[in-house]
């Protein structure tokens, strides 16, 4: 009934979709298995993509040849560039999306991708022989053979939904949990754990009084995620709104605390630290009188509203009573209650840098099975796992992104070296080289790599090279264009910046904090307008950033070069750390467990001290 596939992907969420698309585009035969083909690429929680650090990840996925950026653009109802008031390392694109259109675009994309087959059924087990994956087993008793498998099970592995005192087996509201895989993996020697996440109630937008809320519009000049010219920024946008909880809301919520699964011990898994439930917020931050609520439409035409900031697992009657005490929600009608969900995950220290498991060859994990939270984190892991599953079955070297190359590299490096005891979320603060890893230059960093791997298209590669060339040309022109003091000093005074005493280049002026391309036009409209008229907006922005932050960027690059010295010092896989008695007991234990590939990786393992690193360096030198 089935051929032997190169890659089987289990689960069709954000990770699974990227994995299936990437492997097939690179030339593998792929089977995408899902329990429900009508929920492919379902946005299980908020109808949004990107945000702080997450927007950078979407741009990186796009630069490598993935599809999350394109799909987000095609389903976008609002765009905002967050943190514009800060430096460019912090700028983060974010979109509101049409939930139904997002899922539809992903499904149509996969159906149009040669090499992708689909199968709707629960996968209950794995076929493993001599510590190598051979395929999967289904609930109907079918065995489907493959050369590699990517598990992207999301919250479905033994999932339990909590609403007050009610417990329902399920991986998502209205969908059953996946059984069997956890038990098989633990029998093979894998360590598993439990995590928890949650979602807020959805309400009828027709029942809300938006006049009592703060309107949150999209950017006046919206952008998009994908570098491809095949998508466009939204020509129209839908508003979101902001309102707040209050003391009455908090008191209403507290009346249900005795029935809360969070507080009475029924939920054992740890939840996301940076996205706590509303009951957790008012319990932990009792001194606060209010918490912000974002009121987000779920699409262009639907009246369903996502109540962002009100994630909860309290009983549905308590949710309803508390919701109606929020300003603007006095007459709110609830479509469905919020809930918490517990599910199995597998500590990611059991993975190689390629996301292949250490215990079973050609078996890859991606997404929430690795302890992460968020669509973007899942999608990026799915992309890398799909690419590396293809590479493994075609006997090619695995793709490993460095921390200095991508946020995706930081994410995976953190997971496999440090592990996580709570749902992992990406932040800009996790990246030590964040000035290099900006959202504006992801194509310059990664498109050539994606093209070499066979995923990014030649068209994308050529567009990147053109941007690179034009940016270099513009920087050269700005370094040559000179202004005499008597010509521009009056304009500099008007801008409240220091005047000049000798001829100064446009590039030197751009290094000033309050002068950008727009200000240069005010200083000298004629030559600047003539110069920049030949360049697109993305090139102008790129040139300005590279000039303004040149010294800081160079410092980070020097740091990268120093760190790369350690990254290039490989450690034999058969290294016996137990025999190095000078290492600390914790260092020996962690090194034996993780088995780092390089000294750089060893240095980032929690519990490996600087003294351990010195001893290891000397030992390897011998």
Q: How is the topology of this model organized?
A:
Elements: E1 7-10, H1 14-25, E2 30-34, E3 48-50, H2 54-64, H3 68-74, E4 76-82, E5 92-97, H4 99-111, E6 116-120, E7 123-129, E8 132-138, E9 143-145, E10 149-151, E11 160-163, E12 166-169, H5 181-187, E13 193-199, E14 202-204, E15 214-216, E16 240-244, H6 247-254, H7 278-284, E17 292-297, E18 304-308, H8 316-323, E19 334-336, E20 339-345, E21 363-365, H9 375-393, H10 407-418, H11 442-453, H12 458-480, E22 482-483, H13 485-494, E23 504-505, H14 506-510, H15 517-523, H16 525-532, H17 537-548, H18 550-567, H19 585-594, H20 599-603, H21 610-621
Parallel strand pairs: 1-2, 1-10, 2-6, 10-21
Antiparallel strand pairs: 3-5, 4-5, 7-8, 8-9, 11-12, 11-20, 13-20, 14-18, 14-19, 15-16, 16-17, 17-18, 22-23
Helix pairs in contact: 1-9, 2-9, 2-11, 3-4, 6-8, 11-12, 12-17, 15-16
Characterization of this structure:
- This protein is an alpha+beta fold and 622 residues long.
- 36% of the residues lie in helices and 17% in strands.
- α2 runs parallel beside α11 (442-453) and α15 (517-523) crosses α16.
Keywords, separated by commas or semicolons:
single chain; 622 residues; 21 helices; alpha+beta
Mean pLDDT across the residues is 94
> Class by helix and strand content?
alpha+beta
How many strand segments? 23
- As an assembly, this protein is single chain
Q: What is the percentage of strand-forming residues?
A: 15-25%
Poorly predicted ranges (pLDDT <50, ≥5 residues)?
none
- Gyration radius, rounded: 26 Å
């Amino acid at each position: 009934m089935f051929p032997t596939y190169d890659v089987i992907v289990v689960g069709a969420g954000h990770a699974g979709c990227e994995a299936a698309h990437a492997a097939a585009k690179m030339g593998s035969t792929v089977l995408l298995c899902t329990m429900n083909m009508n929920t492919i690429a379902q946005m299980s929680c908020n109808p949004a993509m990107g945000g702080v650090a997450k927007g950078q990840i979407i741009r990186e996925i796009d630069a490598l040849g993935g599809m999350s950026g394109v799909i987000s653009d095609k389903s976008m109802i609002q765009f905002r560039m967050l943190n514009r008031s800060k430096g460019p390392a912090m700028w983060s694109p974010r979109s509101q999306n049409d939930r139904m259109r997002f899922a539809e675009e992903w499904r149509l994309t996969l159906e149009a991708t040669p090499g992708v087959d689909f199968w709707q059924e629960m996968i209950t087990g794995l076929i493993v022989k001599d510590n190598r994956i051979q395929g999967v087993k289904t609930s109907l008793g079918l065995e489907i053979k493959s050369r590699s498998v990517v598990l992207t099970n999301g919250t479905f592995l033994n999932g339990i939904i909590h609403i007050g005192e009610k417990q329902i087996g399920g991986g998502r509201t209205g969908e059953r949990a996946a059984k069997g895989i956890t038990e098989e993996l633990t029998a093979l020697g894998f360590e598993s754990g439990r995590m928890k996440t949650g979602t807020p109630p959805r309400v009828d937008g027709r029942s809300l009084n938006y006049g009592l809320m703060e309107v949150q519009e999209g950017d006046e000049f919206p952008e998009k995620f994908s570098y491809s010219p095949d998508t466009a920024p939204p020509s129209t946008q839908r508003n979101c709104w902001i309102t707040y909880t209050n003391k009455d809301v908090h008191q209403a919520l507290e009346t249900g605390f005795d029935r809360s699964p969070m507080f009475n011990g029924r939920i054992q898994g740890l939840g996301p630290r940076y996205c706590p439930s509303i009951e957790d917020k008012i319990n932990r931050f009792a001194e606060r009188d209010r918490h912000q609520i974002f009121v987000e439409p779920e699409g262009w035409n639907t009246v369903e509203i996502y109540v962002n900031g009100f994630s909860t697992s309290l009983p549905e009657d308590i949710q309803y009573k508390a919701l109606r005490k929020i300003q603007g929600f006095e007459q709110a009608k609830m479509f469905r209650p919020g809930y918490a969900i517990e599910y199995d995950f597998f500590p990611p220290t059991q993975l190689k840098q390629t996301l292949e498991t250490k215990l079973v060859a050609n078996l890859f994990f991606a997404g929430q099975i690795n302890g992460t939270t968020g669509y973007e984190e899942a999608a990026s892991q799915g992309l890398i796992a799909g690419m590396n599953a293809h590479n493994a079955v075609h006997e090619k070297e695995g793709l490993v992104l460095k921390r200095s190359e991508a946020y995706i590299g930081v994410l995976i490096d953190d997971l496999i070296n440090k592990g996580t005891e709570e749902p992992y979320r990406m932040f800009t603060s996790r990246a030590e080289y964040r000035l290099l890893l900006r959202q504006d230059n992801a194509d310059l960093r990664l498109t050539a790599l994606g093209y070499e791997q066979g995923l990014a298209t030649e068209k994308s590669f050529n567009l990147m090279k053109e941007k690179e060339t034009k940016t270099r040309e513009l920087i050269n022109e700005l370094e040559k264009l000179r202004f005499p003091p008597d010509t521009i000093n009056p304009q500099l005074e008007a801008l409240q910046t220091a005047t000049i005493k000798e001829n100064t280049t446009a590039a030197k002026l751009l290094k000033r904090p309050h002068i950008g391309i727009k200000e240069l036009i005010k200083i000298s409209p004629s030559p600047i307008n003539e110069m920049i008229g030949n360049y697109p907006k993305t090139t102008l922005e790129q040139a300005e950033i590279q000039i303004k932050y040149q010294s800081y960027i160079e410092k980070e690059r020097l740091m990268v070069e120093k760190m790369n010295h350690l990254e290039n010092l490989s450690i034999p896989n058969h290294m016996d750390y137990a025999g190095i008695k000078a290492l600390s007991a914790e260092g020996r234990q962690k090194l034996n467990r993780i088995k780092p590939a390089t000294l750089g990786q060893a240095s980032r393992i929690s519990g490996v001290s600087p003294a351990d690193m010195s001893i290891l360096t000397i030992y390897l030198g011998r």
